[in-house]
């Protein structure tokens, strides 16, 4: 995370795109089920829980009133805080330490260098929360391997962070077998002992039902787009470029803006943004939807899937994509900040990150987000993301004291913006990890190193965006989310925690590389068409039957 960004929520795209914590938003209540994959022996689907059955398992929702946002959430956006926070008058969301100080082991992924055990940040935070945590931080890039090995063993840490993208194969079935039902501690009004957890919206808790029980403590995630088509607004203004509003306009502008002689190309690989321009559904379970004709189809079966790739292929063929992007090497964000490319797609967190990064070396640097458009012009069709995608879970045989200490830690981590606890988690100790400059906290070198930690993965508040040092970036981010959110639709699988049967785990795995090769001209359209045909015959049609049965039984998410 960049030094002075404060945001809630995480997603795999965030980590893969920027290895940073990204802002997230949460949606209103929808029906949910949990469908665990078959284990290979019985082929059963455990815990299909939705509607009233799920409602009985959920914590009572009690919204936090600690700090009202300057920009309220709208159309699924995060809430925005643009006013200076009076650091001397921060509210308290945990008036009494809920932890007993008993030892607690937590395994979590971490991207970057983990803080040293016993560092000032960990010591101070444990003292404030009433915890004594031993962190087992694992490389986030290979976390699935470690998670699988740990869950297959007889020795599981007291608390484990489980990202949704690792819920494949035996890991998915192990979640129900190895982690406890938190209902006796959190269902209904029981959650009121932990007010910050009670303030997590119900939709995110619904996504935390595994095997018919509430097993996860969620991090809310956004239904609005998380990937932004960023452009160099400073260059656009200087050159007099008009921001494109259709696919043809984009290609025409790209040809005008590209000058290989001047070492300036229009863009990088635009596949992620093109999916939004052409109305392509997300990958994974969200790619399934029942259309107006009553038919259940997957994302790759629709014309817009091929159309968005053919358009990106045109960009490459026209020579408007940077040669290093064509070779798929290097860091596109560095090409963007150096002015070698003028448009690229990245996670929302880059809006603040790149602005802060370039503040001193390029004072005129200005990044902005291009609004999504329909390929032919007009309003786009965008699709909602799931309301939670990362959970912390407690091992099934944990003692009551261990559970209560784990929940105390999660409650502290879920403190809302504008509280002492949120300040502690995000910035550490004043004087040790940060100083206050012009009314805003600024991390020092020690803060940057130590406050890069997994505390934020234990739980998160209802999503917000706040950059005390760059409040205008907060406003622009939230307003961009609100504009895009007006065009977001939910697919039939929205709000459903679905883990597909293991036998289908690799069914779609070849498509990403095939897409990369196709847009660069290394594969033919017929190769894509054949892959789609093979997908259907080798399991896609049977997977459709599996989803149809699941939706017939539990209802649609839209």
UniProtKB/TrEMBL annotation:
Q: Where in the cell is it found?
A: Cell envelope
Organism domain of life: Bacteria
Main localization (coarse): other
- Which Pfam families did the record assign? SBP_bac_8
Which keywords belong to this entry?
Signal, Transport
Whether Signal counts among this entry's keywords is: yes
**Family assignment?**
Belongs to the bacterial solute-binding protein 1 family.
Its recorded name reads: Extracellular solute-binding protein
**Species for this entry:** Streptomyces roseolus
